[in-house]
User: What shape does this take?
Amino acid sequence: MMKAEHKVFAAAAAAGLCVWVVGAMLDALVFREGTLLEMLILDVPIHKLCMRSVGVVGFLAWGLVAANYAAKRRRVEAALRQRQRDLKAILQATENLSLITVKPAGTESVITDVSPGTERIFGYRREELVGRPLAMLHRPEDVGWFPKVIETLERTRMGLSQETVLVGKGGREFPALLSVHPLFDAQGRLGAVLGVCIDITHRKEVADALRQYQRVVESSREMIAGVDRNYTYVLVNEAFLNYHGLEREEVIGHTVPEVVGQELFETLIRPRMDRCLQGRNVRYEMAHRRGEGQVNHLEISYFPLRTDGPEPVGLVAITRDVTQRKEAEEALRRRNEELVALSAVTEAVLRAVDLREILSAALEATM
Assistant: This one.
């Protein structure tokens, strides 16, 4: 598609050509100074040639100026459209954060404007906030810090950021990440303060849940490990590290074959992990040789780890050392075998005793 500036220059060139042709037609048909072909190309009088050339050059010059203007206008319009898109994106992004401008006056600081995100985060309508004291969005014990914060902003001319607790409509308190920035007027005086805050309630809840989960995992006597789809460890508890005699940095970020050995991984572990990564729970037992001939019996369970997608993003492996149970079962089995053998011997002895008694009785009867 031809750009606007190209169209403008083409129109100017066409206009210049028309001036030349019209001049030739007037000279040939009206003033009868020669034939049309002569007046057009072959025998143009010098004064006519100069006049027409000036006209053509004038149109071409105008075309260049107009084309340049059109190009600049096109670039400006494109930049304006991009800025509008950027502004829209910023406004959409600010739906998840609060922008508040404040007239600084110590503990009596007043809200002068708020963004749409402020309404969503705090639960107030804009008209309920503008012109009201900033203290309504803070806990009473925090309002006393306003003068110190304003003095720091004015002195350092730099912003401040911290986690705090803010107050929404109805007295609802919520954790937030608050950042305040000084805005100076033309005379260099602090004219306003811009506050930017993000509700981090969900992040705090997730962090608390994660800490609780980690406490449960770490306190478990069972070995617990999290593995992603690349067979890389992303989580292990203390019991896992103690059993393998490793430090956490020797496991996290390393693959299963790097930790347990390539042969064991390929022959026994990987096929079962692959079944789990297809969405199935897997349970099996194995004998694991440790150190100098020590054999531990392990009961291992794999559970798929899902998020929002259809496929598991990894798995959780829970390993129980059932060596003592296995040894007790083996001891019981041997004891049972011994009892069975003893019972068989006893029965054989009893049968032999009974046979001797029968033979003795028979001999006595014949004598």
User: Anything to note?
Assistant: The mean pLDDT is 77. Strands lie at 98-103, 110-114, 160-167, 173-184, 190-199, 223-228, 233-236, 282-290, 294-305, 314-321. Residues 4 and 237 are 67 Å apart (CA to CA). The domain at 216-321 is CATH 3.30.450.20 (Beta-Lactamase).
